[in-house]
Amino acid sequence: MSLSPQQRDKTFLVIAACLLALGICAPFSGHDWQRAMQVAMGLGAVVYGLTVVPVERLVDRPTALGLVLIVGLGLVSSALAHQPLWAFTEVALFISCGAIAVAVALLRRHAGEPLDRVLILMVVLLCLIKSIQYLYAGALAFASGARVLDPDALLSGFSNKRFYGQFQTLTLPLLALPLLMPKVSRSVRGAVFALLCVWWLIAISGGTRGTWLGMAVAGVVLALLGPWGRRWLAWQLAAVCGGLLLYTALFTLLTGALGVEVGSGVSDRLTTSLSGRGPIWWQAWHMIAERPWLGFGPMHFADIANPVAAHPHQAILQWASEWGVPSALCVAALAWRGGWATLCVLRARACSTERVDLLRGCLFAALLGALTQAMVDGVIVMPNSQVWLALVVGWLMALHVWRAAPGASLPWAWAGWRVAAVLSVGLLVWVVMRDAPHIEQAQQDYLEGGNQHLQPRFWAQGVIALRRQ
């Protein structure tokens, strides 16, 4: 029995929400689990896309041509790479993220504005669950009687606290939306503000400087866009103060009263050091100088083993060294073009208090913060961050106000996109099924081989230089 359009939309939404929650809230969650959830969400997005035919184009002609050029260059670079299968896997990840963004855009266009409430409710619930997990872990740590407390040990659901910070960069701006809407009751507003304070407490205690940088840049830009942007910044600054008060109360006053030593305080992160990024940035730069046109191949920074990381923690250097400088310039041009188009809409509606306009501003802040953090961190590498970037981009695509009618969807272009999406998610599913039974053994072999720590890329052990195809 076939599903109606409404049943189809609800089914995809429920599946997507469950996968998002399982990806970060499950007790056993980590990088590899989140990658599997990302592939599952990509599969769901492709299936959903096969059942929908858009009436209007989602992107204009220059954007579509730019995306075709990026994928084409990626395929050529992959074919010439040292390990073509892993290179094609990276291209498939890029396309599957696009499939998620397209599915979100189509879903929002079909369901309309009521779906915006679902998005914000989903963000609030996820942040609430993670906050409860954090506070519960803190309560257990204080009750254990241990003489040393490490705030990093209170973070759960992510393999690295920086990955947690990336998720917070994408959700902190969205969590402030209920505080901006005029018809929200005082009790709801107070509850959301309390949650935002706790969310900032976690961001402060986690010490991810990329999150602080991304939110600072987003705050400055939004403050220049109009009164609603300044209100957004005011709420965020108030929540930062609340988070600092909570941090002081828990990790200074309470620990002092109990005689507990804080093992890794936030003051230890207030430095201007590169945290080991210098060598991997130089490696990426040398790779660019050696092969500027097509790069070494997607994912192939991980094919040159180094003791620091399997990616350079810098989006531009990563894309240029792996996909080539022309592809990186094309990606930058599309990002600038899309960002500028959204910025123009925000400026034109700077005084609007409609929910859709406020949501557009919060989504733009999340995207701007994440892209800023991507200049110093692996936002475009980590599975959970990739999924949330796709979600934010897809929602912005659906909310975009065109200057002129975008025109009807081209059947041949949509068919080509479907073929690319199906092939991509098929490759990803095959890679997951191939590697999943051996992931733990591969990690153990890697660490027993004299390596100090795992270096995430596709999997938590992401150094493909040590793998056999």
Automatic annotation (TrEMBL):
Top-rank lineage group of the source organism: Bacteria
Keywords: Ligase, Membrane, Transmembrane, Transmembrane helix
Protein name: O-antigen ligase family protein
Compartment list: Membrane
PANTHER family the record matches: LIPOPOLYSACCHARIDE BIOSYNTHESIS PROTEIN PA4999-RELATED, TEICHURONIC ACID BIOSYNTHESIS PROTEIN TUAE
Domain (O-antigen ligase-related) ranges: 199-331
Bilayer topology term: Multi-pass membrane protein
